[in-house]
Design a protein that fits this description.
By secondary structure, the protein is mainly α. It is built from 2 helices and no strands.
Length: 29
């Protein structure tokens, strides 16, 4: 499950980089 963990970390970094609106538009499946 390394991929899932990496995705979570990536999402965190992306949240800071990308605006929240983008995160809301793309829900985490």
């Amino acid at each position: 499950m390394k991929g899932i963990h990496a995705n979570t970390c990536n999402n965190k970094a992306k949240k800071e980089d990308e605006p929240p609106s983008l995160e809301y538009q793309r829900p985490k499946a």
